[in-house]
Amino acid sequence: MLDCCEPLEKVKAKGISFGKVVCLAHCAGAKVEAFRSNHSTIDDFRRQVMACTTSDNCHLISSYHRGLFKQTGSGHFSPIGGYHVGKDMALILDVARFKYPPHWVPLPLLWEAMNTIDEATGLHRGFMLITKLHRAPALLYTLSCKHESWVTISKHLMDDLPVLLSSENVKGIKDVLSTVLSNLPSNFVEFIKWIAEVRRQEENGQNLSDEEKGRLAIKEEVLKQVQDTPLYKHVTSILFSKNSICQSKAASDSSLANVAANICCQGAGLFAGRSGSSDRFCCLQTCVRCYRATGGNSATVVSGTVVNGNGEQGVDVLVPTSLAKTSCCPSGQAGCSPMHPASNDVLTALLLALPPHTWSRIKDTKVLQEIENLVSAENLPPLLQEEILHLRGQFLLLKKCKDNKVEEDLAAPPF
């Protein structure tokens, strides 16, 4: 399920390194503190084991060499499930139970097994602390490296784009944004994804719970803040004035109905316990319903009927409603209602999230100052600022993965 930073087929064949597991945890939205054994001590490790095994929200993952336990195999990852104070032993909740069940080991022996070198990287193994963030790291969008194209897309955005913007022809904000939008890879929609909330239809009947309404309200506030930025107005103007860009970057398969149909299939795969796979499910139809919520606001739900060989499953996708009067509708859809996700929303978020160095090679100092003011995170309201800083942190993390530098620096990205 957690295919990030490294293709699953490669992981199955060769395993995964300590640094890539840290990357994986970050990608999955966890807070991570990582310690290699040569940067820690057995006493520090013991204190962390005792703290995590008596905590409700901290989990400790140990990376160790199985050979020291007289087990077959070499490098392995396991969560630590308990600590026996009297015997100074740790309970390993093994993640490969078909091979070894959970077992107790003396903590000094576990430390010795952790204080070994991973031959694949030449670096020490260690342990990491995994905790839940106080709130979801992102509400509307996230960067995805599940699609194989993420390496080339991230290279374009982080390495090639600054070179394109160094052209003498970039003489105004319109030139800057047109250069970015017209040079986006055709499959960039695989790189920045809409975060969707999916539920089984029978869970809540025809009504939204107060909790669901609350989450939608927060998402809609972030969406409103995106649309209130001066950058959004520039992006929308360019998308409407250059319809060819709108058509190429907001293709018909990005319409709300089609996006939601794909999400319904993914959701059905998760509910069926198939790791989110959508290839076994087919979405027969989708329909959009609006619920009247407290205070006169409406909540949008896209319902899909998903089928596979075992029958039908009704799935709902909760959609924050855009209040913007303008929206870049795909393929000239008549009567396109202003609902999220829309291309001008996602492109604005992507531009805000690009690393600050993206703009540094613009030669006209006045234009450079103007674009830096437009994309500055300091000028954003707190909710949107958190969203954008998280996306920027993801950019930095993906760059480390792309450049094979994730092993060198295990510090958390600056969300």
From TrEMBL:
GO terms for molecular function: glutathione gamma-glutamylcysteinyltransferase activity; metal ion binding. PROSITE patterns: PCS. InterPro entries: Papain-like_cys_pep_sf (IPR038765), PCS-like (IPR040409), PCS_N (IPR007719), PCS_N_sf (IPR038156), Phytochelatin_synthase_C (IPR015407). Pfam families: Phytochelatin, Phytochelatin_C. It comes from the Eukaryota. Signal peptide: none annotated. This is glutathione gamma-glutamylcysteinyltransferase. The gene is LOC107820529.
